[in-house]
Each structure stands twice: as C-alpha cells, then as structure tokens.
Design a protein that fits this description.
This protein is an alpha/beta fold. It has two domains: about 210 residues, DHBP synthase, CATH 3.90.870; about 110 residues, Rossmann fold. It is about 30% helix and about 20% strand. An eleven-stranded mixed beta sheet has the order 1-8-2-3-7-4-6-5-9-10-11, sandwiched between helices. α1 packs across α5. The protein is globular. The N and C termini lie far apart (about 50 Å). The structure holds threonylcarbamoyladenylate and magnesium ion. The site of threonylcarbamoyladenylate has 28 residues, from β5 and β6.
Length: about 350
C-alpha cells in the first residue's frame, strides 16, 4: 500500500485534504493524524473491520482496547450507556484536551474497538486538525498512538512514517505535537474514580473536580502484585533497544554514579547514552548525551522524552542512564513513562 503524507498547517485552509482523509475513514481505511498529545492511528470506531485493521497495522494484541476520539458532546451520549455527573464535570473542565474517560459503552460501539470490554475509552482532543478530521470522518475515530507496538509514541509525522509507512492510507502531517505524552486516563466506571495513566491533567486537577480520586497501584511500582487496569499498561511499552537504567538520589550522587557507569560502558566498547537536564548535561561523557531541558520544566521533559528515546535507537545506543524526575504534576507522567521504558530498572544511590 502507498502511504500518502500530506501537510496540514491549518484546518481551515486544508478543508479538501481533510475531506479526503474523512472519506478514507468512512470507507474503512486508516489515517494517522496529529493530536495535542501524540499522533494517533485513526479508523472508524463504529466499524469492527477498521478496528481489526488498526491492530494489524500496529502489530498490537487485539485485547488492548482503543480510545474513541470525538469532536462534540452529542457524540459522547451516543457511545456510552449514560453520562454520569462526574463525566459532565470533567468534560466541562478539561475537554477538548488531554483527558480520556472510561465509561460503560452503548451498543453502537463494537467489541472489536473495546478489546472485548463492556467499557469504552473516550477523548475529545483539542488540536484543531484533529477536531476537523474527526468531524470529516463521521464523528467517531478509534485511535491508539500511531507507533508500531513497543516503540515510543510518535510526536511528529516523520516518526509515524518510520513505523507505519506502507501499512496505512494517509498521514496528516501537522508538525510537532505540543505536549508529547499520551492523555491522562481516568476510569469513571468505579467509585471512587481511578487514574489508569498519568498525564497533563494531573491527579491534583482531577481531585479538584471530583473530590476523591485513586491511582492504579501499578503505575509506579512493578511489584504491587496486581495486573494494571488499563490493558495496554501491562505491555512493556516505549522500550528503547538499548538497556535503560534510571538513577535516583541526591543530584551530586546521581551525577557521580552515572559518570562512573559511562566510563565502565566505554571500557567495554558500549555505545552510551544519557538522559539529563540542562543543569547537568555538560558533566557527562556519553556518546549520545541528551538534555530534556531545565530540571524545573517538566513540560519540556514530557515534550522531548519520546524523541530522545527514538534518537537512541537511531544511533544504536547499547546502554542508557537517565536521571530521575521526582515531584507532583506532570513530572509524574514523565516518570511513569520513563519507568516503563526502563522496565522499572531503578538504582537508588
Ligand atoms: O493521548 C492519547 O491518549 C493518544 C492520542 C492518539 O489520543 N492515544 C493513546 O492511545 O495513547 P493508546 O491506544 O496508545 O493507549 C490507550 C490506553 C491503553 O493502555 C488501553 O489499554 C487503555 O487506554 N484503554 C482503552 N480503553 C480502555 C478501557 N475500556 N478500559 C481500560 N483501559 C482502556
Ligand atoms: Mg500507545
């Protein structure tokens, strides 16, 4: 299959292209599109054959449910059994935006889209191109992140093409995404609601709207002895090809430890990488040194992390050490993805 890549700078000026993309979806095809979080791999959420195609293109297990992307509140009512008060409150506060809600699904949504579950994940993205595309596609676009299974989520169209060229009909290139990590997922089918994946809509923000909110215990600990509640969180995602180890502790001790390990790596002729911050990056002698930005700027780290992980793969790095990112808010999302990429290999110094 030939994959067409089309540039979309502004939804308003690209109506014809968006119409074409919408027609592909309506005919059962697949189109990758930008959202504010990461690029999505879209298909018609109400067409079981489209969802099967998405799993195939991604190389993803079909028990891993997809997020249904919508562009207005009427669409939400159509795909869920009922819209609970909590969902209304969250939608009003955070939609369109980087929040996904799990609700009871209606009969309109096929089991192929929900990985066999009776619940459905729903999100209204804020990106203009995404919203215009969803409307052109009929209003219900099932989309996982547009990477091959096991690769970091793509933050630019070029990365989508690396993973999916020849496997999908079209890629809408809207440039670099603004956030860089996937949406927060909150399960509203249980009381109290549970955060299944941390993101830019933080626990504190959700608590402010809902009162009590819990967190899936598996988010930061591999040893909780429980299966993650979002099926996708059980797979080792975002894994770079090299070994990734996170080093945690007082700043100076971390720098010293990592520097020593980089020296060892060189001794054994390993190609080394480091993930650090502007404050520390110059102290490391790695083959591929990468700073995520200023330590206090968690949003910059979120935006750059997946690009950096892909760059390590492109450079054939064998051994990667990363500083750790503590704190509340967006840092939690950064650390959650980093821990998953590292397969939870953490050294405390
Ligand atoms: O920001 C995002 O959410 C991006 C963009 C494209 O919107 N999408 C995304 O999709 O990250 P994906 O498929 O890579 O991750 C969706 C996660 C998976 O871990 C999946 O298991 C979980 O959501 N999920 C989907 N439906 C669910 C459900 N009904 N119950 C529990 N977890 C669900
Ligand atoms: Mg994904």
């Amino acid at each position: 299959m030939l994959t067409r890549v089309v540039q979309i700078e502004e939804a308003e000026r690209s109506k014809d292209l968006l119409y074409e993309a919408g027609e592909i979806i309506k005919a059962g095809g697949l189109v990758a599109f930008p959202t504010e979080t990461v690029y999505g791999l879209g298909g018609d959420a109400l067409n079981p054959a489209s969802s099967r195609k998405i799993y195939e293109a991604k190389g993803r297990p079909s028990d891993n449910p997809l997020i249904v992307h919508i562009a207005d509140m009427e669409a939400l009512q159509a795909i869920v059994k009922c819209v609970p008060e909590a969902a209304k409150r969250l939608a009003e506060a955070f939609w369109p935006g980087p929040l996904t809600m799990i609700l009871e699904k209606s009969v309109l949504v096929p089991k192929e889209t929900t990985g066999g579950l009776e619940t459905v994940a729903v999100r209204m993205p804020s990106d203009d191109v995404a919203l215009a595309f969803i409307r052109a596609a009929g209003g219900y676009v099932a989309a996982p992140s547009a990477n091959r299974s096991g690769r970091p989520s793509p933050t630019r169209a070029e990365y989508v093409a690396q993973d999916l060229d020849g496997r999908i009909e079209m890629i809408l290139d809207g440039g670099d995404v603004t956030l860089g990590l996937e949406s927060t997922i909150v399960d509203l089918t249980v009381e109290p609601p549970v955060i299944l994946r941390p993101g830019f809509i933080t626990r504190e923000m959700l608590r402010q709207k809902l009162g009590h909110v819990e967190e899936d215990e598996t988010l930061f600990r591999p040893d909780s002895g429980q299966a993650p509640k979002a099926p996708g969180m059980k797979y080792r995602h975002y894994a770079p090809q090299g070994e990734l180890v996170i080093v945690r502790g007082p700043a100076e001790a971390v720098t010293e430890y990592i520097s020593g390990k980089l020296d060892d790596g060189r001794l054994y002729s390993k190609k080394t990488g480091v993930i650090a911050t502007d404050e520390t990056i110059d102290q490391y002698k790695a083959d591929v040194p990468r700073s995520v930005g200023k330590r206090a700027d968690a949003a910059a780290a979120a935006k750059g992390l997946y690009r950096i992980l892909r760059e390590f793969d492109d450079e054939g790095v064998d051994l990667i050490y990363s500083e750790s990112f503590e704190g509340a808010g967006v840092s939690q999302a950064v650390m959650n993805r980093l821990l998953k990429a590292a397969g939870h290999k953490v050294i405390n110094v």
